Amino acid sequence: MKNVKAIIVGFGVVGKGVAKVLQTKRKELEHDYNAKVSVVAVCNSKGCVIDESGAGLDLEELVELADKKKFESHKKFQKMKGADAIESVKADILIEATPTDIKTGEPGTANFLAAFKSGKHVITSNKGPLAVNFQKLMGEAKRKNLEMRFEATVCGGMPVFSLVRNGLQLNKIKSVRGILNGTTNFILTKMLEDKVSFESALKEAQELGYAEADPTYDIEGIDAAAKVVILANALLGINASFKDVKVTGITKVTAEAMELANSQGFVIKLIGEISESGSLEVSPRLIPKVHPLNVKGSLNALQIDTDLAKEVFVVGRGAGQIETASAIVSDLVDIINRRF
Ligand code: HSE
Fold first, then answer.
1. What is the pLDDT of residues 80-134, one digit of tens each?
2. Which one is the CATH code of 169-317: 2.40.10.10, 3.40.630.10, 1.25.40.850, 3.30.360.10?
3. Is 323 in the pocket of ligand 1 (CB under 6 A)?
4. pLDDT tens string 220-273
5. How many angstroms separate the most distant Cα atoms in the chain?
6. In this predicted structure, which of 26-40, 60-74, 207-221, 322-336 has the lowest mean pLDDT?
7. 59-63: long-range contacts, CB 8 A cutoff, minimum separation 24
8. Residues forming beta bridges with residue 269, ordered by sequence position
9. Distances, alpha carbon 290 to alpha carbons 123, 265, 267, 294, in Å
10. Which H helix or E strand runs over 302?
11. What confidence score (pLDDT) does residue 244 get?
12. What is the pTM assigned to this prediction?
């Protein structure tokens, strides 16, 4: 049996989702992948619960406490920074699920660097560090011969990077475009189909857990732009960061404009695109109703244009607790298969 020790830093919606999935899929991990994953430290923004014995924490208890906002009452809780726990606790893999800060990339970047310094692979759902420092962090991982995986950062539970890595080998990715933000797609769908106002559709998206901690990231196109940057770096080898994306959000899209588009056979969607010339853009666009990118609700959709396979389309859930956890555990299993 492969014994894998992991640390979870960031214990909000995504971190708790990973903890839940690691419990519900424990048998499958053991039976199908011959792996036992023990979580030896869990940190939120206030501090960490660390299992010094290395046997693994009771994740059910931790999720319950965190749901009741009582994480800090755990008997093993200590005030400390995530980065300090990452460096000092003996483990193989960091699961980094702190919230995205698109301006500084922190605390994610510090957490990644602490992991690489102490020889840990990184799996993340946090777009900030990658949108700001993709090449630097990937370079650091490679220098240390460690994995840096980020399936959960783009389109949540919908496979993108693993699809390209495992199914489009030798293909040159020429351009990419799609719906990269579930919250705005949900809002636009609700406005058109249920005649709901922008504000109440946004409120519903927040209640359903789709929106970012700061929902202006969603509606101003910032979240989609961060994903464009990650796609550009990872799939097209473009050394881009957030400042290279031309961004327009959906705040000026009116119900009238959507009705008009609808009557002409189109829908308005927030599209993120990396063109063949290498320009990066997020903006509301008209999409024919019959086009495969016309997906509804919180769904994401991506068109990947390649030289060999030509157009490949993927549709899936770009947000949600268990959906995002699915991407993280898929990175986890892939690392276990390759490295343990
Ligand atoms: N707020 C994001 C979205 C979550 O709506 O797509 C996933 O990144």
1. 999 999 999 999 999 999 999 999 999 999 999 999 999 999 999 999 999 999 9
2. 3.30.360.10
3. no
4. 999 999 999 999 999 999 999 999 999 999 999 999 999 999 999 999 999 999
5. 65
6. 207-221
7. 59/19, 59/20, 59/22, 59/23, 60/23, 62/11, 62/19, 63/16, 63/19, 63/20
8. 285
9. 36, 8, 10, 7
10. strand 299-306
11. 96
12. 0.96
Q: Which atom number of ligand 1 is nearest to the Cα of residue 183?
A: 5
Which CA distances in Å does 39 have to 87, 90, 164, 262? 15, 11, 29, 50
Q: Does domain 2-156+321-339 have CATH number 1.10.10.10?
A: no
**Ligand 1 within 6 A of CB of 215:** no
* Mutational test site, ligand 1, from 223, 230, 271, max ligand atoms within 8 Å of CB: 223
Q: Report the alpha-carbon distance of residue 134 to residue 233 in Å, rounded.
A: 7
Distance 17 CA to ligand 1 centre (A): 15
- 296 is written with which tokens? 């509804």
pLDDT, tens only, 267-313: 999 999 999 999 999 999 999 999 999 999 999 999 999 999 999 99
CA of 218 to the centre of ligand 1 (A): 7
Report domain extents, the chain.
Answer: 2-156+321-339, 169-317
For residue 317, the one-letter residue type is R
CA 153 to chain centre: 2
- Measured in degrees and rounded to the nearest 5, phi and psi for residue 108 equal -55, -50
CB atoms near residue 305 (< 10 Å): 18
Catalytic annotation, residues: 227
**2-156+321-339 shares its CATH topology with 169-317:** no
Residues 6+ apart with CB under 8 A from 184: 218, 219, 221, 224, 249, 250, 270
Nearest protein CA to atom 8 of ligand 1, as residue? 319
Distances (CA, A) of 278 to 161, 219, 238: 19, 24, 7
CB-count burial class (<10 Å; 0-12, 13-18, 19+) for 168: middle
